[in-house]
UniProtKB/TrEMBL annotation:
GO terms (BP aspect): monocarboxylic acid metabolic process
Segments crossing the lipid bilayer: 126-147, 162-183
Family recorded in the similarity comment: Belongs to the short-chain dehydrogenases/reductases (SDR) family.
Phylogenetic placement of the source organism: Bacteria, Pseudomonadati, Bacteroidota, Flavobacteriia, Flavobacteriales
Keyword Membrane: yes
Gene Ontology MF: a single term: oxidoreductase activity
Record protein name field: 3-oxoacyl-ACP reductase
Keywords: Membrane, Oxidoreductase, Transmembrane, Transmembrane helix
Length: 236
């Protein structure tokens, strides 16, 4: 039976790129979105699902729908995210709460409701997309950095809880890539960022996809609880 992949946040910059690459594989793809439906051509066995990942009842219903359709959930990529740039002492509390809800509570809720399904199946892969900002900080990203750092702690705890059930849990801390939130960075600042990267270039999403391909493979079952730094040498 083919394995399936649930991509949370499949319509954003990173998510849409991952969707494109996964459509070239044999995996059955479940594309999650909330406000913007992804522009993908579904193949037989693929599916679109929608939920606000910050609301537990919606997450629970979405996971139940997927289980009813496929009987299992093999792989989850927690990719939904938002970043609102504000200096910490000027950060609006509602923006702080929104950022943590989407970036941290959402992945927790998704993982909470897929874990029993994976445990019953004695196999699973959970991936959290985190950020170098969680490790090194960046001006104006207090809420974003805190939320992505929280994922790294969640990652370790879930990995220990689920390892005996044949489930691995890992995080990928992304540096600066050529799609996604980098688009909102002014040109001069973007160039300064590139100059600061030892590889002197932004990351490409194919590099992220190839990393994920290994993490979700059968041969990766001894890799769990880890944060994989994919950043061109910017943080070591």
């Amino acid at each position: 039976m083919k394995k399936n992949v649930l991509i949370i946040g499949s319509s954003g910059g990173i998510g849409s790129e991952l969707a494109k690459y996964f459509l070239e594989t044999d995996y059955q793809i479940i594309f999650h979105y909330f406000s913007h439906k992804p522009k993908v051509q579904l193949r037989e066995g693929d599916r679109l699902v929608s939920a606000n990942v910050t609301i537990e009842s919606e997450v629970e219903s979405m996971i139940a729908e997927i289980k009813a359709a496929y009987g299992k959930i093999d792989i989850v990529i927690n990719n939904a995210g938002v970043s609102i740039s504000e200096i910490s002492w000027k950060t609006n509390l509602s923006n702080w709460e929104k950022t943590l809800a989407i970036n941290l509570t959402g992945p927790f809720l998704v993982s909470k409701h897929v874990a029993p399904i994976m445990r019953a199946n004695k196999w699973g892969r959970i991936i959290f997309i985190s950020s170098i900002v969680a490790q090194s900080g960046f001006i104006g990203t207090a809420a974003y950095g805190a939320s992505k750092a929280g994922l790294l702690g969640l990652n370790k705890s879930l990995a220990k809880e689920l390892a005996a059930s044949g489930i691995t849990v890992n995080a990928i801390a992304l540096g600066y890539f050529n799609v996604g939130m980098i688009a909102d960075v002014p040109a001069e600042m973007k160039q300064n960022i590139i100059d600061s990267i030892p590889k002197k270039s932004l990351g490409d999403t194919i590099q992220l996809f190839e990393t994920i391909k290994y993490i979700i493979s059968e041969n990766s079952d001894y890799l769990t609880g880890q944060t994989i730094n994919l950043n061109g040498g910017l943080y070591m």
